[in-house]
Amino acid sequence: MRKIRIMEHISLDGVMQHENSEDFAHGGWTTPYRSLEGLAAVLEAQGTNIDLLLGRKTYDDWAQYWPKAGDNPMANSLNNGKKYVATHRPESLEWGPVEDLGTDIVTRMRDLKSTEGPDLIVYGSSTLIAVLLEEGLVDEVVLMVYPVLLGTGKRFFAEPANACQLAFVSTKTTPTGVLLNTYRYVGKLES
User: For position 187, what pLDDT does the model report?
Assistant: First the structure.
């Protein structure tokens, strides 16, 4: 049985958005905090033999970058892993190996989770993350928390988020002050 693991880069105030846009001028905010030790910690947390669960926007953004990123452990793991994509345009998926999740993504993700294979890693893909958490399909959440406050931008925990409980597993700190906090999904928060 495979695990579904969310890995997300966020600011202290929960912003996960990385790209510049009309309403967000802080693209690239993670760059000053990158280090070889940080990359090693991310690769350790992620693993090198993985498959990806991605929303269409994240898939499209990454398809423009990772195939051209050269021969390195992060690029190799992302390029070699199978990408399962939530999309209404499956005919235009080119960065492979790739498969669309179909029209019933919840059933498809449950089916994928019950198969043998590498862990299914989710990066970005905020809409997909919300569905995974709502359906109780997440096994682990790794938040890479950067020592910055951005004030605006798309947040990891957006409204309306359904209340759920996570159990702390571990933390690591990089030399630049990024915390890699790992949590196990417990379930919906009972009042």
Answer: 87
